[in-house]
Write the structure tokens for this entry.
Amino acid sequence: MEKPWEIDLSIYDDERELLSGLRRRDRMACTCLLKFYAPRLLRLAGQLMGDPDEAEDVLQEAFIRACDRIDSFRGESGLGTWLHRIVINTALMRLRARRAVVTDDIERIIHDEADQSWQSLSSTSVEPSRELLDAELLDAMNGAVSHLPESLRTAFVLRDVEGLTTREAAGVLGISESALKVRLHRARLELRQKLAPYLQESTRSASEHERGDA
Amino acid sequence: MNIDSPYCQKLAELIAACDSTDPDPELVARIDEHLEQCKTCAQAESALNETVAAYRSAEFREISAEFESDLVNRLCHKAPEDKGARD
Ligand SMILES: [Zn+2]
């Protein structure tokens, strides 16, 4: 699709400059914000919601909320971390709304950047890939995660994918640490079972490859 | 690393015995203990961790240009003043 404006991402490399641009509602700053953070946050929203369409809604709502509150953002947690938290809470609110449970967490999170219960969450928590998962296994993993029951999926995504500690993830979900652990074990066991055919295939291919190289 | 390493039946039974809303902490501790001691499960944990790590670091899909453009318009729209909106 044709872009009506030129993109020079380097203009807003500096987070303070970016924040200042966002406070002015500068179009380029808003574009850079999305370029920098939207792909990663869209994946996170998709993992939590288990549905790509709902993930876009979550992302949109989260960015709008963030920009509406940008004047009150003090920069204590880093913009990426703050956005991660807003996306997680927006997604969880939607999931809870499905169950007709009302929560005002999002307001608390937006206004409480320094909340100590989120220390492990980092916008840069994604490590470089050591080994790329082959496409088929990645597809299977995506499918398996999205088909986990919501209570297991959120535990798995927050703890294993986002890297929150057991205490943090339990706090975000409003459950005990023991419950979080059980849900995580269930999720991992279920994923392992769902991935079994792909894992067997991958292992067989790897062995054949090794034998071929020898 | 053989990534096709299943958990043992004993672990599945321990997990199945736990309530996922209000589990008995003693049962949860037994799961932890089992995972520390069982070689089969340790191998399964390690293999699954490797798969999850790769899943975590898989490349992000770019958002669509249309979605981006719509959202940028919405984000710019609420400008307290029009300053910078046409940059
Ligand atoms: Zn075992």
About this structure: Chain A touches chain B through 63 residues (CB under 8 Å). Residues 4-97 of chain A form a domain with the Rna Polymerase Sigma Factor; Chain: A fold (CATH 1.10.1740.10).
